Amino acid sequence: MGGKSTLKTRMNALDGVFSEWVRRKDATPHGIARCVTCGHCAHWKNQNAGHFWKRQHKATRWNPFNVAVQCIRCNKFRGGAEAEHAAYIIREYGLKAFEDLEEAHNRVKKWTKEEVQAMILYYGGKLKELDQSLSSISSASSLSNLGANITHPSQPPRARGSQ
User: Fold this and answer.
1) Looking at the domain assignment, is residue 156 inside a domain?
2) Cβ atoms within 10 A of the Cβ of 71, count?
3) What is the largest CA-CA distance in the chain?
4) CA dist 92 to 10, 34, 49, 82, 97, Å?
């Protein structure tokens, strides 16, 4: 892609990478992620990355303590299910982390292109780690299934056509 990359363009790219990481990091190997506010399970692609302190608060926009998997219902139609989301943050990370987020969301933060690009690379790397982890789980699963049709030497051979 030619041309100069603007800060807004990079921030949009970071939103995408960060959102995917948030939704995938706690998903099962089959891609199922649980909403932290109501418990609804769905494929990570059908879930949202819900912000406790909304995205316009730049200081907390990409803070992993501030963003968690939420179903579309909780994130969009229940306004982020704030009470349940707050309870999740406190339960998962502690009251101090919640208080730090509360303080940070009021700070004015002006991100530089370099800071945003560094986070794109960081969370892009985290996604690659998830891909590698899933690949090794998939390989191990495939290897364990390799012997499924092999009879043990102490077992009589199977008749042709029988399973």
Assistant:
1) no
2) 24
3) 74
4) 30, 14, 16, 15, 9
pLDDT, residue 133, reads 84
Find where tokens 């990079």 sit.
Answer: 10
Q: Is residue 1 part of a domain?
A: no
Mean pLDDT, rounded, of the chain: 86
Mean pLDDT of 80-84: 96
Q: Residue 72 half-sphere exposure, CB side, CA atoms within 13 Å?
A: 6
Q: How many domains does the chain have?
A: 1
Query: Is 140 inside any structural domain?
Result: no
Q: Determine the Cα–Cα distance for residues 16 and 39; give it in Å rounded to an integer.
A: 23
Q: What is the pTM of this model?
A: 0.80
